[in-house]
Design goal:
Immunoglobulin-like, 25 strands
Length: 554
Amino acid sequence: MPTSFVLHSAFSFLIASSLKLTLLLTVAALLILAYRRRSAALRHQVWATAVLASLLLPALILLLPAWHSSALGIAANAFASGPSLTPGAAVPVSSVITVNAAASSPFAGWLTLTMLSLWALGCFAMLTRIVVGLARLAWLSANSEPLFDDAWMHQVLNIAAEYKMSRAVRLLESRNPSAMPLTYGLLRPAILLPAGAAPWPAERRRIVLSHELAHIARHDWFLQLCAEFARALYWFHPLVWLAASQLRHESERACDDAVLQHGVAPSAYASQLLDLARTLKNPGRAWSTALAIARPTHLERRFAAMLNPSLNRSHLSTKTKLVIASLAFALLLPLAALRLSAQSLSGKISGTITDPSGAGVANATVIMHNHEAKTIDMTTSDRDGNFTFKSLPPGDYEFEVLKPGFESYDIPQVTLDAGRDFSQAVMLKLGAVNERVQVTPGNSATPVERSADGKVQRIRLGGTVEAAQLVTKVTPVYPESAKSAKVQGTVVLHAVISMDGRPLSLRVMNSQIDPALAKSAVEAVSQWRYTPTLLNGDPIEVDTTIQVNYSLQP
């Protein structure tokens, strides 16, 4: 597969994912606006669902069956344009072909490569930031001591029971006396406390543990880490940065509400947070993946919220979480399946249909059949044999050309790729003339039965084909020896109708037939005469298949 095609496909995929993500996060932002008077826990859940959906979106785009819409793909076309395809030569019937892309213009290829390189560099930088943050947390854990103070452990167990938590929580004491309390970890969550935290008064212990255990009970660290990965993947998208920032802010607000709901006075809580922010140091905010209790960002807004008695501080029920998740999937699944025109339609589909003399075949039916999607698209050739399709969704198609007087032309599998042109030259072969004769004892004048089995009487307009007509027929005679032996069967003969209408090169196709029947059929058919087949007014030779059926039944 050409490198230019891979680059274009990757760029189109990135653009399509970004456009869909924009719609997804816009819906989330509108919901947040509508829920501005609801609880912080509800707003946090909306942002968290949007962040998780943004990470699932690329995988679902690749896995889900396509739902095509060219109307919604105009925006994608403005960002990504596909290189054109050099028209291919004719392909043998019954072959499998894949449409290959010709080299794109140097500028388009350079631009695509540059944009993908910038995305990759930004993604790498953001992932590096995450790795550095996780490494920093691992280093802090390794250089901290477990805290087994009875007062602390007793309070952890009580608050964990209030939050209905079943996971064990580690208490770690840092070597740094000015370190801000942090929470991190999913399977083995930990709360990191500054050195000398053991003698803290009970009120501060309760406030700090209530806040940090609320983070653990709500899985906030995992969700924030997902937001960081979303920012790495879509580092260029401002709505993703907004979602990650608001997710962290609403998680702090939701934990504040949880603390207040468990009996802590708002004034005491605000006082303790202010004291922690003054005396302790936050981790490097640019790269930290931990959740700190008193980050300076939005701290003033948190104070205003916790001191406002009219705010909704209710927690989120399981039913509400399920409803939000269901609505998210109802939006995400069709959005992921949607294929925009820039990523979902092939380029121009065209070709030329000719006869054996090289003349164009007019009014031939051209069919593109997508068996997987169960769609059929058809067009006809013009007076010069040219045909053109509108752009079709990418996929595997069966390509077929039908024209009376000619054999059908069929390619079982043609793979159309997004944004790629497809051109096919077709030369139709003349269809064979078929005759069927019924021979019974005592009936020597059975009329000729003309048949059309899909390869018969294909009338071509382009320089016209006039099919051969049987004008003189000698009816075969049922051999007496065969009648006596009660032998019956069908003799299949192949012949070439010459330019003067005589059957030449007669031969029996089914060699197992009774010799007497075969001899009778050959003797009779050799005396038949046809009008010659005319191609563009000139006589030509054409194959014929003749079936002579010998039956003892009247």
